[in-house]
Write a structure and sequence with these properties.
Length: 168
């Protein structure tokens, strides 16, 4: 009787870092290097490293370029994910006013972006965003990396499958 094949789900991680914060020896550089190792080791199918600014306008009409629009769309995806799971995109994704009028009213609302954030997808579905939080506490980028590290590499399942012998 033949054995059924082991099906693996596609694992993709987006790593978002601030444009000016991707310093090789800094915290963002260390996160990127760990993710690159996880991808090389077969624990991730795809790794995408993207940059974003420190802030983006919350008003779509104030978005200047296609990259800002892409970042805004990704943030909406993250917010939808958080809403469906009763999570909060914080710390790191706060809204605040910048610039002030003579009456001290904010001129523009912006969303601050964390120095580094991870978005994990399985089979194309967003399954985790860090940093995020719920009533149990904060889910950090470091905890997310540890979870990714604890998963077996895909090639180990392929080796096990290759060594399986089916009986009559």
């Amino acid at each position: 009787m033949p054995t059924s094949p082991i099906t693996e789900t596609e694992r993709r991680v987006e790593c978002w870092v601030r444009s000016l914060a991707r310093v090789p020896d800094g915290p963002q550089g260390r996160v990127v290097r760990r993710l690159e190792w996880l991808a090389t080791d077969g624990r991730l199918d795809t790794l995408e490293v993207e940059t974003w600014p420190a802030t983006v306008p919350t008003d779509r009409e104030r978005l200047l370029g296609s990259h800002e629009r892409t970042v805004h769309e990704r943030l909406e995806t993250f917010e939808d994910w958080a809403d469906r799971r009763d999570r909060d995109l914080g710390p790191g994704f706060e809204e605040r006013g910048v610039g002030h009028t003579a009456l001290d009213a904010p001129v523009e609302q912006v969303r601050t972006l964390p120095a580094v954030a991870l978005a994990e997808y399985r089979e194309g579905e967003l399954v985790r965003v860090t940093p995020s939080s719920d009533e149990r506490g904060v889910d950090s980028v470091d905890a997310h990396l540890q979870d990714l590290l604890s998963r077996p590499p895909k090639h180990s399942a392929e080796v096990e499958r290759a060594g399986t012998v089916s009986g009559d």
